Amino acid sequence: MLLVAYGFTYETDKRALLEFKSQISESKRVVLSTWNNSFPLCSWTGVTCGRKHRRVTGLDLRGFQLGGVISPSIGNLSFLRSLDLSNNSFGGTIPQEVGNLFRIKYLYMDSNDLGGEIPASLSNCSRLTYLYLYSNHLGGGVPSELGSLTKLVYLYLGYNNLKGELPASLGNLTSLRNLGLVANNIGGEIPDDIARLSRMVYLELAMNNFSGVFPPAIYNFSSLEYLYLYSNGFSGSLRHDFGDLLPNLRMLHMGKNYLTGAIPASLGNMSSLRNLSFAYNNMEGEVPGGVAKLTQMVYLELSLNNFSGVFPPSVYNLSSLQYLYMFGCGFYGSLRHEFGLLLPNLRVLLLASNSLTGVIPTTLSNISTLLVLAIQNNSLTGSIPPGLGNVRGLQYLGLYSNYLGSYSLGDLEFLGALSNCTQLHTVNVGNNRLGGYIPSSIVNLSTNLIYLSLETNYISGSIPHDIGNLKSLQTLRLHENILTGTLPVSVGKLVEMKELILSSNRMSGEIPSSIGNITRLELLYMFNNSFQGTIPPSLGNCSHMLFLWIGSNKLSGNIPWEIMQVSSLVYLGLESNSLTGSLPNGVGQLQNLVRLFLGSNKLSGKLPQTLGNCLSMETLSLQENSFGGDIPDMRRLVGVKAVDLSNNNLSGSIPEYLANFSSLEYLNLSINNLEGRMPVEGIFQNDTKVFVFGNKNLCGGVRGLKLKPCFAQTPPVKTSHSVLSKKAVIGISVSISLLLLLFLASIHLCWLRKRKKKLLSISQSPWTLGAFHEKLSYGDLRNATNGFSLGNVIGSGSFGTVFKALLPGEQNVVAVKVLNMEIHGAMKSFVAECESWKDIKHRNLVKLLTACSSIDFQGNEFRALIYEFMPNGSLDMWLHPEEVEEILRPSRTLTLLERLNIAIDVASVLDYLHFHCHEAIAHCDIKPSNVLLDDELVAHVSDFGLARLLLKFDKDSFFNQLSSAGVRGTIGYAAPEYGMGGQPSIHGDVYSFGILILEMFSGKRPTNELFGGNCTLHNYTKSALPEKVLDIADQSILHSGLRVGFPVVECLTLILDVGLRCCEESPANRLATSEATKELISIRERFFRSRRTARR
Predict the structure, then answer these.
(1) Has this prediction a pTM greater than 0.85?
(2) Distance (Å, rounded) from C-alpha 733 to C-alpha 97?
(3) pLDDT band at residue 91, thresholds of 50, 70 and 90?
(4) Residue 751 above 70 pLDDT?
(5) Is 828 helix (H, G, I), strand (E, B) or coil?
(6) Cis peptide bond upstream of 1026, omega within 30
(7) What domains are defined for the chain?
(8) Active site residues
(9) Tell me, what's the pLDDT at 712?
(10) Residue 518 pLDDT level (bands cut at 50, 70, 90)
(11) Is 817 assigned to a binding site?
(12) 352, 484, 486, 497 - which has most CB atoms within 10 Å?
C-alpha cells in the first residue's frame, strides 16, 4: 500500500525505486546495476537528488532499452521534479499514482509501448510545464481535466490512438506555446475556446479527423510560427487577410484537406515563410504574384489542385527554393529558358501531370544540386538536353508521356551523357517520340540504376550486348518499340531484375537460357515478337515469377515441365506459338495460377486430370490446339470465370458440374467432338455465354443454342402384326423422305439464285473490299472477340453490336461492328457505311480499318466492319455516367474546355462532310453515343449506317432504313422535317448538332422526362438565357477546373446560343456548320487563349 503525501523520507525514496526496478526488464542488465544497497541512492544511475534534503528530485532513464511496466511506486517520489522514461519499451499503462507527483514540472514518457488512457489524475500535477506522451499506444480521449494545468507550456500527445473531440477546456492553458496532437483519430471541429491560446508558437494537428472550415480561432495566434493541419477534413476557403493575421509563420502545411477558393494574396506578407504546402486540396485560381516576396522559401508544394494559368511567374523569384512540387495543378504554357539560372538551388523539381508545352530548358543543367527531375505527363516537345549529364548528383529522371524526340537517330544521345550521373537510380522516358538506336554507352550508366524505361517510343536496332553491366537493374521496360535482333546472353547477369518487359517489338532468335539466372524475376513479358526455338527450361529457376507472358512468337517444342515447378505463377501466357507435345501433368502444382493461356498452338494429347488442382484459376484458354479425350474433372475450380476449349478434338459429354460454377461468365466448347445431352442449368441457361457449335452429336439445351432435340429411345413392342407393320413403316418413311428431299432441294435452289443475285448486286456496287486493308474471316473475328462474348461488348446500334477485339497479328485493340442480318435494312446499312467511308478521311472520323463479308459456322451471312478502337468510349457515357455500370464509368467529369473542344471537333467533321467531300454527305444520326473519344479526349464521329450521299438519295430506301433502325435511338435528335417526310439533308445534321451542344452543356437529354408537349430542350434552354444560364447548366462544369473570376455565364451563354441557332425549327434559319465551327473556335480563343486539354 502506498504512503500518503506526508511521511516520505530518503528511505522511502529508495524503497520506491527498488520496487520500480523490480518491474523492469533490461536486455543488458548493466544500466541499473548500481541500484542496490551497496551504493548510495543519490549515486544510482539516472538518479538526481536535492542538495538540502537528499531526496530524489530527478529520474532520467531515457534511451536505456528498458522494458516491463511502470510501477505505481513511482508516485511515492514526492520531491520529484523531472521524470524522463522516454525512448524505451515500457508497456502496460501509465499508473494513476503519477498524479501524486505534485512537484513535478517535466514528465517525459514518449516513445514507449504504453497503452490504456491518459490518467485524469495528471490534473493534480499543477506545476507541470512539459508533458510528452507521444509515440505510444494510448487510447481514449484527451482528458478534459488537462485544462487545469495552467502552467503547461509544451503538450505533445501525437502518434497515439486518441479519439473523440478536442476538449474546450484546453482553452484554459493560456501559457501553452507548443501543442502536438499529430497522428491520432481525434475528430470534430476545433473549439473556439482555443482562441485564448495567444502565446501559441507551434500547433500540430495533422493526420487526424478534424472537420469544418479552417479553424477561426487560429487567426488569433499572431505569434504562431509552425502550423501543421495536413491530412484532415478541413473545408472552405481561407480568409483574404490570412497572411496579415499570421505574419510570423515559418512553416504552413495544409495539404490533404478539402480547401477551396484561391491562395490568399496576403500570403506574400509572410516574409519569414520557408515551407508552404497546399497539396491535395480543391483550391483554384492563379498563384498570386505576392508569392514572389517570399524570398526565404525553401519548400513549396501545391500539387493536385485545380489551379489555372501559366506556370506561376512569381516562383521564378524564389532563388532559395530547394523543393518545388507542382504536379497535377493544371498549369499550362512553357517554362522560361533561364529556369535553371533563376532557381539554382533546387533539389527536387516535380512538375508532372500539367499541360506544359515548349521545350525542356537547357539551363536545368546549371542546377548542380538537383536530385529529382520529374516533368512527365505534359506536352513537352523538342529534344532531351544532353546537358543533364552535368547534373552529377541526379538520382531520378522522369520525362515519360510527353512529345519529346523527333523519331530520329540523335534522340537518345542524352543517355550517353547521363553516365556522368553516378547516383542515378531511375530513368523513365517512355511514351515519347524518341527514335534511333539505344547507344552502347547506356551500359555505362550508374551502377545504382534500378529502373530503366524506354517503352512506347520508336526505338530501333538491337539491345546492347553488354546490357548485363547494369547489375543493380530491377526493372527494364523496352516494350512497344521496333527493336530487332536477339536478346543478349548478358541479360543473365541482371540478377537483381524483377521486371523485364520486351513485348511488342520485332526481336528474334532464341530466348537465351541465361535468363534462368535471374532468379528474382517476378514479371517477364516478351509477347508479340518473333522469338524462335524452344522455351528455356532454365525459367524454372525463377522461383519468384508471378507473370510469364511469351505468347505470339514463333516458339516450338514442348512446354518445359520445369515451368510447372514455379508455384508462385499467377499468369502464364504461351498462346499463339507453335508449341507441340502435351500439357505437363505438373500444371496441377500451380496452385496460385489465375490465368492460363495456351491457345493457338499445336498441343495434343489428353488434358491432364491435375488441371483440376489449379484452385485459383479464373481464366482457362486452351483453344485451337489438338487436345483429345474427355474434359478432365475440374469440379474444384469453383472460381473460374472464363473457359475456352474450342477448336480441339475433345470428346465425351459436357460435365454437369459446370452448371454449378456461379462465377462462370464465358464457356466456349465449340468445334470439338462432344456428344450427348446439353446441361440446362446455371450458365447453360444463357445462350450468349455458352458456345457449343461444331459439335454435331450434341443435343438438347436451351433454344438459342440451336441444337437438335434429344429423342428418348423406347423398346419395340412386338405384336402379331409386327412384320407387316415394319414393312409398312419402311415404305411410308422412304416415300416421305423422297418428297421431303425434293421439297428441300427446290427451296435450296431458289435460295441460291436469290443469294447469287444479291451478292452480284453488292459486288457491282461502287464499294468493294479491295478498298480496305485485308479480308478477315468470320473465324478470325470470332476468335478476336472471344466468341463474340458479352464481356467484349462495348456498344450496340440500330443494326448490330460492337465488340472489342484484338485481331491476329495486330498490336492494338480494334472495334468490330457486327451487323444483325436478320434486321431488315442491315445489308443496306452495311453497304451505306462502306460507301460513305470509301473516299473520306478526316482526323475526327473514326477510322475504318477493314471489313468482313463472310459466312458463319452455321452457313448464315455474316457482315462486320472493323474500326480503330476509342479507349475513352462514347461521349454519352461521359455526359451521363450515372447510367453506366460503375466499373465502366469515367473517373471524372468533362471540364467546360473539354466539352467545347469536343463540340469543335464534331462541328469541323460535319463541315468537312457537308462541304469538302467530292459529294456532300449527311450523317443523319448525330448523337452522343455516335461521338467517340480517344485517349486524349479528341472526338471522332462514328456510325454511318444511315449516312447518305445526297446526290444519290433514295427517299424510300432512306425512310425504310430509318424505320427499321428503330426511331427510338434518335428521337430528340432527328430534325423535325424528317418526321414530316422531308428528305435527308445537311440541315438535318446541323439540327442534331445543335441538340448535341445543348445536351453537352446542360447535362440533359432531349428525351428527359422534363420535356413534353411544347416544352423541349430547345425552349428550356432559350428561356434561361442569359440570366438563368447557371440554373440550367450541368453543375459538374461549374466545379471542374475553372479559374477564380472566370466569366462562366458569358461563356456558356455564347456556346448555348450557337446550339440554339443550329437547332431552329426551320432548316433555312439554321447556322451552317462552317459558321458554327468558326463561332465555337472564336469562343475558345476568347476565353481559353486557344488552350486545348492536357494531351492535345
Answers:
(1) no
(2) 107
(3) very high
(4) no
(5) helix
(6) yes
(7) 10-262 (3.80.10.10), 767-869 (3.30.200.20), 872-1096 (1.10.510.10)
(8) 925
(9) 60
(10) very high
(11) yes
(12) 497
